[in-house]
Amino acid sequence: MFGTAVRQLAQTIADDGYEPDIILSIARGGLFVAGGLGYALDVKNLNVVNVEFYTGVEETLDMPVMLPPVPNAVDLGSKKVLVADDVADTGRTLKLVHDFCAEHVAQVRSAVIYEKPQSLVNCEYVWKRTEKWINFPWSVEPPVARHRVRGTEA
């Protein structure tokens, strides 16, 4: 259903008349959404912002944190930006990115596959609303290898 979801989400954006200059993907889950939206909306300027918040199923850090490299605000200036993510759960990650963009861009809107009722951000574009925990094919299985932080090897 993911392909259908992204295509329908893109159609909603197109029907609204919003033509983003840049799609800003929130990594990791937003990478897949942004790629699909980029193709469907014919937007080739895709950027990524890395945000760490979820550490496990329904487990989070106290606050979301942007990880380097942080997008250069100059590259976003005077642009219409579409922030893409897979789920607006608490909305804290989207709020962090939205607030970062709002200071530098002409306009910022958000698009997600799923939005939950407790989200701090009411996304302009949502495929479905739900209260359920969402398992995507790319995140339901544990990693096949764990990333080792440099300097911690024995």
Can you describe this structure?
This protein has helices at 2-16, 29-41, 73-76, 92-102; strands spanning 22-27, 46-56, 59-67, 80-88, 107-115, 125-129. The protein is built from 4 helices and 6 strands; from the N terminus they run αβαββαβαββ. Strands 3-2-1-4-5-6 form a 6-stranded mixed sheet. Helix 1 (2-16) crosses helix 2 (29-41). 28% of the residues lie in helices and 32% in strands. It has one domain (2-129): Rossmann fold, CATH 3.40.50. With 154 residues, it is an alpha/beta fold.
CATH class descriptor name: Alpha Beta
Question: Count of DSSP helices?
Answer: 4
Please indicate the percent range of residues in DSSP E strands (runs of 2 or more).
25-35%
Helix content: 25-40%
Calculate the mean pLDDT score and round it.
85
Q: Report strand order across the widest sheet.
A: 3-2-1-4-5-6
Q: Determine Rg (CA atoms, Å).
A: 16 Å
CATH architecture descriptor: 3-Layer(aba) Sandwich
Q: Could you give a short account of the major beta sheet?
A: 6 strands, mixed
Low-confidence runs: none
**CA distance, first residue to last residue:** 43 Å
- In CATH, the topology is named Rossmann fold
Task: Give the number of domains.
Answer: 1
